Amino acid sequence: MTLERVLQQTARVFNLHGIEDSHLEARILLGHILKLSPAQLYTQPERTLSQEKIESLQQLIERRLCQEPTAYIVKHKEFYGVDFYVDPRVLIPRPETELLVEKSFEFAKNRTNCLSSLKKPFLIADVGTGCGAIAISLALNLPQIKVYATDISPSALEVARLNCEYHNVMEQITFIQGNLLEPVPEPVDLIVANLAYIKSSELADLSPEITNFEPIVAIDGGRNGLDLIQQLLEQAEEKIHSRGCLLLEIGQNQGKAMVSLINHCLPKARFELIPDLSGIKRVVKIDF
Ligand SMILES: C[S@@+](CC[C@H](N)C(=O)[O-])C[C@H]1O[C@@H](n2cnc3c(N)ncnc32)[C@H](O)[C@@H]1O
Questions:
Q1: Distances from the Cα of 231 to the Cαs of 20, 226, 288, in angstroms?
Q2: What is residue 204's predicted lDDT score, i.e. its pLDDT?
Q3: DSSP 3-state assignment of 204?
Q4: Per-residue pLDDT of the chain (288 residues; tens, 9 = 90+)
Q5: Using CA atoms, how far apart are residues 159 and 170, in angstroms rounded to an integer?
Q6: Ligand 1: centre distance to CA 194 (Å)
Q7: Distance (Å, rounded) from C-alpha 56 to C-alpha 128?
Q8: Which helix (H) or strand (E) holds 189?
Q9: Residue minimizing CA distance to atom 17 of ligand 1
Q10: What is the pLDDT of residue 1?
Q11: Where are the alpha helices (DSSP H) in the chain?
Q12: Ligand 1 site: residues with CB under 6 angstroms?
């Protein structure tokens, strides 16, 4: 059977089972089997697939139909233009988190220009680092920064370390296990965090792709969804330099609750809610 036909058939099966982006998903799985990128597959539509490869693909299709996320099947995910190893020890990085990285990058770039004459490293804490997506994306783009990357989950930190070694930024990032900012040993210039923000009572409404495969500690935001974020706000003042900044990702429709929380925990803070391209307030920026 030719690659073109295999792709069409796989996409049709995915479509019938309600899997979105069926053509792209089919390309990613077939590309994984053949060690080709989805784009490279376009150049060989008439190539024939051996029986052995068809059977391997069939196994991956079955896993996908059991709702296993494609990123866990192929064990990687692109984020901010960088490839990350992922497995069920970590949350799969989401495209919406790229806005958080973009805003962190903007703030750090501005401030490192000012600090360069002082020869002091610009310090960042990435709280709840997961696979290390935020810390590593920032380190790759800003060689003058040092990052403390924390996570409560020792197994998530194992994955983050693998990614850090793979991208060769070990000198810039220190991984520490612990609760939020508690293990960070000194005040930093920027705190960035994409913490769990789904209400515990709403976890059952999420798709089985998430609840059956991704780590619960990465998605459960407690009773009102903002429990971890509240704790972080309470810890922040002690762990941030004056003129520092805290950048957080929040969920859709959490803007109002977030404003009340900031007014309660940090009544003097200046802050803004930053929308993504669809107008959803996704990032909170708090200036200290
Ligand atoms: C939503 S995931 C984000 C992962 C990664 N930063 C990203 O953006 O893809 C949240 C992460 O926070 C970690 N986490 C949960 N509770 C924590 C806590 N109390 N202290 C530190 N990390 C925590 C989870 O293990 C998980 O890796």
A1: 36, 9, 17
A2: 95
A3: helix
A4: 899 999 999 999 999 999 999 999 999 999 999 999 877 888 888 889 999 999 999 999 999 999 999 999 999 999 999 999 999 999 999 999 999 999 999 999 988 876 555 567 899 999 999 999 999 999 999 999 999 999 999 999 999 999 999 999 999 999 999 999 999 999 999 999 999 999 999 999 999 999 999 999 999 999 999 999 999 999 999 999 999 999 999 999 999 999 999 999 999 999 999 999 999 999 999 999
A5: 13
A6: 7
A7: 35
A8: strand 188-193
A9: 152
A10: 86
A11: 3-16, 22-34, 38-42, 51-65, 70-74, 98-115, 133-141, 154-166, 208-211, 227-236, 255-265
A12: 90-91, 93, 97, 127-130, 133-134, 150-153, 156, 179-180, 194-196, 217-218, 228
Q: CA Rg, the chain, in Å?
A: 21
Indicate the Cα dihedral angle 203, 209, 210, 215, nearest 10°: 120
**Structure tokens belonging to residue 178:** 């612990």
Q: For residue 205, how far is its CA from the centre of ligand 1 (angstroms)?
A: 20
Atom of ligand 1 nearest to the CA of 97: 8
Pairing of strands 76-79, 82-85: antiparallel
Q: Is the dihedral of CA 101, 102, 105, 111 positive or negative?
A: negative
Calculate how far, in angstroms, residue 128's C-alpha sits from the geometric centre of ligand 1: 3
The alpha carbon of residue 66 and the mean position of all alpha carbons in its chain are separated, in whole angstroms, by 23
Instruction: Supply the pLDDT for residue 178.
Output: 98
Protein residue closest via CA to atom 13 of ligand 1: 128
